[in-house]
Amino acid sequence: MASISFVLLIAGGIAAVAVVAGVVAIAVVASRREKE
Description:
This protein is mostly helical. Helix content is 94%, strand content 0%.
């Protein structure tokens, strides 16, 4: 059962990275719009 929790941990890490990347992308777009 340890393998299942390990897979969930990896999936959670990937999801966290995806969320952070999305927030950064939105912040970059917002900053670009403000500069213009």
